[in-house]
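Lab notebook: predicted structure, single chain.

Context: the supervisor wants predicted structures on file for every construct in the current expression panel, including those that have not yet been purified. This is the next one on the list. No modifications to the sequence; it matches the entry in the shared construct table.
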Amino acid sequence: MALNEPHKSRIIGHMNADHGGEIEEYLRAFNGVSAGSARGAQITDMSLTTMTIKSASGTHTVAITPALKTAADARVVLVNMSAQAKAKLGLSSIKVRAWHPPSGLGLLTFAGVALYFVCAATYLLVAPSTAAWRLLDDFWPGGATAYKWLVRAIFVPVMLIHLGEAWWMARSRLRKHGVEFGSKVWFLWTLGTFVEGLPAMKRFDRVVEEEGKKSH
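Prediction complete. Output recorded below exactly as produced.
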């Protein structure tokens, strides 16, 4: 028994229109296609046992497991395959599609770390006989010399900690929740975490929690 054309066209049309991400995940999880090569995946044909999918890397055949008995089985089987693909790829069904700016404690942290980066960027401009040097000598505990020592002493630890936090955000959260690498949203969350640190990750987790509530 085969899928009749009206049923097949309806299933393919629905999947291509509303579930392009899931089709890409089928290729990645079940056929080992890379994320870049799976981009733009669309189903071009379908039987009870296979899907023919065209993507940026060419045409692929994905086995439907378990095979359909009738067209009525398609929704349940394809949804289950999507869940299996996500589990295999370490992805979540909850997608984050926007950046949320810092507020409250996160805003204070962002401002504080940003201020340190300004201090580090202007380190060489603070020299004897400059107005900045005189101002620091008057108001900074220990004077301008102590200020420059502090900025220099914590530079490497600050950079390592914040680079690590940005890397962990991208690895543990952004990829999992469908934030595409290199996209505007990816850069905003990653760079925001580099500056802000842990509060950005906690804010992202709250966004995920809220998105999860909307989906139930």
